[in-house]
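User: I want to check something. If I give you two sequences, will you return the structure for each one separately, not as a complex?

Assistant: Yes, each is folded on its own. Here is the first sequence with its structure:
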Amino acid sequence: MLAVMCALPFFLSPDEPEKLMVSITLLLSFTVLTDFINRKLPETSDNISTIVWYMTSLFVQAFLGVICNACVLILHKWDSERGERVFSRSRSASLPGEVAVATICQLPAHSRVDSVNLSDDASGTVDLSDAGKSSRAHKLNFCLIVINTTVLLALSLIAWLQMLL
């Protein structure tokens, strides 16, 4: 059950800071389970059992999951801060919609977007989110879902084959 839950934090959106807490909780759960298994195994064994190899590899995967989720959250924070810093306007300089659009259209080509939504909320920010494009954090999160699931399936397959042989 814990092995399947290793992929769970990557299915949460980078917008949710709880994904790092779920990763850390899984890592602590593996620590407790590994300690429990260590107490039940005989100490005079010459060979390392398959379950120990499997649990150790899952522990390493959970540890790397914490690091990867932290990287996704940091990348998401950087992207959101950069977007707010570049495309925000102060409330005191309230520009009319046409002037704001003209100012945004004069940005360099790599920072332009096709759809502009001018919101008149309390922060006075200009929302430039394009629904068709995903952020770098979302792309990295998707890649990590694929990698994590593939590694989990490979580790489980290897462990089952070793137990059968």
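And separately, the second sequence with its own structure:
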Amino acid sequence: MTEQRPRVVQPVRNGPVLVAGPVRIETPDGVVESDRFMVAICACGRSRNYPLCDTSHRRRDAPHRRADADPGGDT
């Protein structure tokens, strides 16, 4: 039996958590799988592609919003 290498996880200050892939992410809303060599997982809750990061954390003025939040806002 071959020994498995430990999974590499790198938190990025004010950014996502980088995880060496492939990964399977289990959330209350379902499962997301990625076979990429590195996967960025949203740590701020702003991503419209949650739980994957879409770089929304770069917009510091943007409100914290999950992908299932109402995009229409108050009118």
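Because they were folded independently, the notes below concern the second chain alone. Confidence is low (pLDDT under 50) at residues 70-75. The chain is about 0% helix and 30% strand.
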